[in-house]
Amino acid sequence: MARIQQLPPHVVAKIAAGEVIERPSSVVKELVENSIDAGSTRIDIDLEVGGTELIRVADDGHGIEPDDLALAFAQHATSKLTSADDLFAISSMGFRGEALASIAGVGKVTLQSRPPALASGCEVRCDGGDLSAVRPWNGSPGTRVEVRHLFYNVPVRKKFLKSVATELGHVCETVTRLALGNPGLHLVLRHNGKLVYEVPATAGLADRIGLFFGAEVRDTLYEIDSGPGRQRVVGYVADPKCDRGNAKLQYLFVNGRWFRDRSLAHALQESYRGLLMTGRYAVGFLFLTVPPDSVDVNVHPTKAEVRFQENSLVYSLVRATVKARLLRENLVPYLAAPA
Ligand code: ADP
Ligand code: MG
């Protein structure tokens, strides 16, 4: 009988990476979230071949101290949590200290960083878990992470990647969510050296929505705001005439973080009851603010799903706020054709 033994760290990293890093867009999400947590105002994302050959994220954030650079790749190493209590009041995008370790387990990573207060920075490489020495690096303040040859050592996962266009599509969707959740951020996305889009730090959310979804959506938006309270929902919903054949233009955010929630998507749909034909979907961009200790963002490895303490209260708040706003527009209900 085989004896029990603890797995070596590079095997643990590969297993963990399986949960968090599914495709190039997962890497982009983790790296850009780190840049946001670092207080960056501009983030440049460069991809080659849908991100399978290269993903580079460069920011102008607060950087990493040279002495901490190697530690950034260690598992469960984070600067964002200091005690278990912090887990229940998370205000940063990251906190698990897993992303860089996971990415380095399935790709070849170079991390370069310079805190603005230092005259020069340092870099370190990590190939499939093997860490290089820390060397000096002369770059501008901020952090650059380069990931090459994603999944070079995980052939099964590489096999499951789709076409370059599909992988790029996933990255664009990820960047859209991050851009909507952080309207003050200047974002640039390039693919094979060509600009895909540049999103300036726009005046507000409505402009940003217009940038991604066009004037047709931008011009039919109604602003919503439930008003101050323990829970608050603000954002925009579109006129029913802007309806869609799917729910793709229903974006939900809680405390700045994009998430998926069938119940709240249902609340949004319910507010449009009588205004949409069967099989048509509302367009909405809803931003919830709730006390950090009333939402658990630690229920899903990529944090795509969250759990609200006061689930039904949040549901009613969304439905009532959107419905009240639509009522103010005196929209004519859609009349079902007699059977
Ligand atoms: P987490 O984000 O959950 O803390 P990561 O593995 O993503 O874990 O990152 C580990 C640590 O590396 C972070 O806690 C942070 O201190 C540092 N770090 C990573 N990326 C950046 C960045 N772009 N700017 C500044 N610090 C960074
Ligand atoms: Mg992170």
TrEMBL record:
One of its GO terms (biological process) is mismatch repair. This protein is involved in the repair of mismatches in DNA. It is required for dam-dependent methyl-directed DNA mismatch repair. May act as a 'molecular matchmaker', a protein that promotes the formation of a stable complex between two or more DNA-binding proteins in an ATP-dependent manner without itself being part of a final effector complex. Belongs to the DNA mismatch repair MutL/HexB family. The keyword Disulfide bond does not apply. GO terms for molecular function: ATP binding; ATP hydrolysis activity; ATP-dependent DNA damage sensor activity; mismatched DNA binding. GO terms for cellular component: mismatch repair complex. The chain holds residues 1 to 339 of 631 of the full protein. The gene is mutL. Residues 209-327 form the DNA mismatch repair protein S5 domain. The keyword Cytoplasm does not apply. This is DNA mismatch repair protein MutL. Keywords: DNA damage, DNA repair. It comes from the Bacteria. Transmembrane segments: none annotated.
